[in-house]
Design goal:
Radius of gyration: 36 Å
CATH superfamily of the largest domain: GAF domain
CATH architecture of the largest domain: 2-Layer Sandwich
Strand content: 15-25%
Distance between the termini: 85 Å
Order of helices and strands: EHEHEHEHEHHEEEHHEHEEHHHH
Strand order of the largest sheet: 8-7-6-11-10-9
Number of strands: 11
CATH topology of the largest domain: Beta-Lactamase
Shape: elongated
Helix content: 40-55%
Length: about 400
């Protein structure tokens, strides 16, 4: 029940207004006669909307009070007044009010103005929170490559913002099955996390076509379109009645779905929710793409490190890696006052052999020598490295 505050300096009018509002099932928290009293009330009590008379008994008129209320508390204000001259109207418009009702008003007009104001304020509030969510998501993408953390944070924030029961990320497998890899869940519901399977309402071909146009699937009541008894049992088991889903694309291919569920039906998904989910899907797709590139870069770097550490011909430790190991062992054994043994081996006449019989024969010679040396190693602390052309 919305909580309202009346600011009206005529007692009879205030009583009549309160009676009308309570008849319309609004809760009138307080009725005051001045802007100063209104601001004092708002500082202490949660109010959803203020009904403000423009002409008040103190020095601060209703328009000035409404401006302070908007700036300090971000609470919607509807003007109720008999003064409708151009100057008054322009002053009121400059405060960006949520409504302006001329006295005497009809009950229906008042009710309509209040509902429109509450709906508008709710949309603006959620829109602002959605923008902050997108900003945080963008910052997280630029600062981190941890996809799991990003997924978990996103589903939790979306569920809280949308005030719904469940948000999941469903990943498709190569065989057209899929699994729930991330979930945010309200208390009292059965978790879907880790659930795997093929079910038409999740992994159906229609969903796999959504990525072509980045479409969203919004269903107010799944029960009305689900005829199969097993599907109904599944939906009832997990407490699913309404759904909002959008595809997640990675490298121009459908990767999975970002799905919002709620147990209430019909649940009319709002346009701001759809638009926000589209932005989130774009950001998550970018994050997955960047994470993939980062993983590829790490793999390339690891391969380069391996190439630098291993001699490609003999598969022994390279000279660069040997020098690093030697320095470490030297410092370690010196501090422990333990001797270090180095054996340098050089193949006699290797250059002449290579020139006479060719490079391939020389490479085979190096492999045979490598095998012979390695067979003589019997301690895990021993290290064999190729130091130069025919030097070990």
């Amino acid at each position: 029940m919305p909580r309202l505050l009346i600011v009206e300096d005529e007692t009879v009018v205030a009583w009549d207004l309160q009676e009308t509002l309570e008849k319309l099932e609004y809760k009138v928290v307080a009725s005051v006669t001045s802007g100063a009293e209104a601001i004092q009330i708002l500082s202490a009590i949660q109010i959803d909307l203020v009904l403000m008379d423009i002409v008040l008994e103190d020095e601060m008129d209703g328009i000035a009070a409404a401006q302070q209320i908007r700036d300090r508390f971000n609470i919607p204000v509807i003007y109720l007044t008999a003064h409708a001259d151009e100057y008054t109207l322009q002053r009121a418009i400059n405060t960006n009010p949520y409504g302006y009702v001329i006295k005497p008003f009809q009950e229906r007009d008042l009710h309509t103005a209040i509902e429109i104001a509450l709906s508008r304020h709710k949309r603006e509030k959620y829109s602002a929170q959605g923008k902050k969510l997108i900003e945080r998501l963008g910052n997280s993408i630029s600062q981190s490559f941890e996809l799991d953390s990003l997924f978990n944070t996103t589903v939790n924030e979306v569920r809280q913002l949308f005030e719904i029961d469940r948000v999941i990320i469903y990943r498709f497998n190569w065989d057209k099955t899929g699994s729930v890899v991330v979930e945010s869940l309200a208390e009292g519901l059965t978790p879907m996390l880790g659930w795997e399977g093929y079910d038409p309402w999740i992994a159906e071909p229609n969903y796999r076509d959504l990525d072509e146009h980045n479409q969203i699937r919004a269903i107010a009541d799944i029960q009305t379109i689900t005829k199969d008894s097993k599907q109904r049992q599944f939906l009832e088991f997990f407490g699913i009645r309404s759904e909002l889903a959008i595809p997640l694309v990675r490298a121009a291919k459908l990767w999975g779905l970002f799905i919002c569920y709620d147990r209430t039906a019909p649940h009319q998904w709002q346009q701001w929710q759809i638009e926000l989910l589209q932005q989130i899907a774009i950001h998550l797709s970018i994050a997955m793409q960047q994470t993939g590139l980062f993983d590829e870069l790490q793999l390339v770097n690891q391969k380069l490190q391996n190439l630098a550490a291993i001699d490609p011909l003999t598969q022994l430790t390279s000279r660069t890696c040997f020098d690093e190991c030697l320095e470490q062992e030297w410092k370690k054994l010196a501090s422990e006052q333990v001797p270090l043994c180095l054996i340098m081996a050089d193949i006699d006449f290797f250059k002449s052999f290579n020139e006479t019989y060719g490079r391939q024969a020389g490479d085979n010679c190096l492999r045979h020598v490598t095998s012979a040396i390695c067979q003589s190693i019997y301690r895990p602390t021993h290290l064999v490295a190729r130091y130069g052309g025919g030097e070990f």
